[in-house]
Known about the structure:
- By secondary structure, the chain is α+β, with helices and mostly antiparallel strands.
- It has a single domain (about 10-80), classed as Arc Repressor Mutant, subunit A.
- It has helices spanning about 40-45, 55-65, 70-80; strands at about 10, 15-20, 25-30, 30-35, 85.
- It has a three-stranded antiparallel β-sheet with strand order 2-3-4, covered by helices on one side. A two-stranded antiparallel sheet has the order 1-5.
- A hairpin with a 4-residue loop joins strand 2 (about 15-20) and strand 3.
- The longest helix is centred in the C-terminal third of the chain and has 13 residues, at about 70-80.
- The N and C termini lie close together (about 10 Å).
Amino acid sequence: MITADSVPQLRRGVRLSFDHVRETHVLLFPEGVLVPNATAAAVLELCDGARSVTDITTALSQRYSGVLAQDVLTVLSRLGERRVVAWT
Length: 88
């Protein structure tokens, strides 16, 4: 079960990059490509295998107003279901 203390990281072979042609982030992985929305991209940028969900929520709260830990958990859970995020 994913909690506020869980530490997410991009799975091996998964890479978040910025597509300058489309002017959006893309998530590249062996099975395909995802185009995350701005919220998911902001969360993914902080998934370094060292920060917990709480740390990610705190970092996002410094950049944006109204960030909720449950929203971050929901985004990460969905990305986990797509097998692009792993938990340490």
